[in-house]
Design a protein that fits this description.
globular
Length: 170
């Protein structure tokens, strides 16, 4: 186990996800969303991260979607109970949708640059505007609904692009 303490790279410098300027990453057992954007943190800090999710996206997108499905069920329960404890899991889910959006476009996540969600080729309609709403109001039930829809729509867009790509290879 090799625990690294790394600076949050400029590409990910976003207080919504990283209130601190440094984060610890175990580069021997990387979990994409623990800490948020673990692969990108290693990549932007020039640390070797093995297989990169935006290059081997089929495997990693499956991981993100499975993790989301588990979190989605728990979030449904929390919102149904009107719990005030939704923010941590909503933040994780928001990070996961960023990973899904960027990785399915064969790119590492970039949170603050000209490469915005709206510039991605594979994305749901109004994805940038919808993500902005979700980030501004992460504890609202409507944000959860929008997030669920973004996951579903992006998964469909990604599956469509894969099918077209495979059909073109034949």
């Amino acid at each position: 186990m090799k625990e690294l303490t790394l600076s949050i790279p400029l590409q990910l410098n976003d207080p919504f996800f990283f209130p601190e300027s440094k984060v610890s990453v175990d580069d021997s057992h990387i979990i994409p969303d623990d800490p948020f954007f673990a692969y990108e943190i290693l990549y932007y800090n020039d640390e070797v991260a093995g297989s990169l999710p935006w290059e081997d996206h089929e495997f990693f997108i499956g991981f993100i979607l499975n993790s989301w499905r588990e979190g989605e069920e728990y979030l449904k329960t929390l919102f149904k109970k009107r719990s005030k404890d939704t923010l941590p899991l909503m933040k994780k889910s928001i990070a996961q949708v960023y990973m899904l959006l960027y990785w399915s476009n064969s790119m590492p996540v970039i949170l603050n640059s000209d490469t915005t969600i709206d510039n991605l080729s594979i994305k749901p309609v109004n994805a940038g505007e919808r993500m902005s709403f979700i980030r501004n109001y992460p504890t609202l039930f409507h944000s959860f609904i929008q997030l669920s829809q973004l996951f579903e729509e992006q998964h469909k867009q990604y599956a469509k692009s894969l099918a077209l790509k495979r059909a073109g290879e034949k």
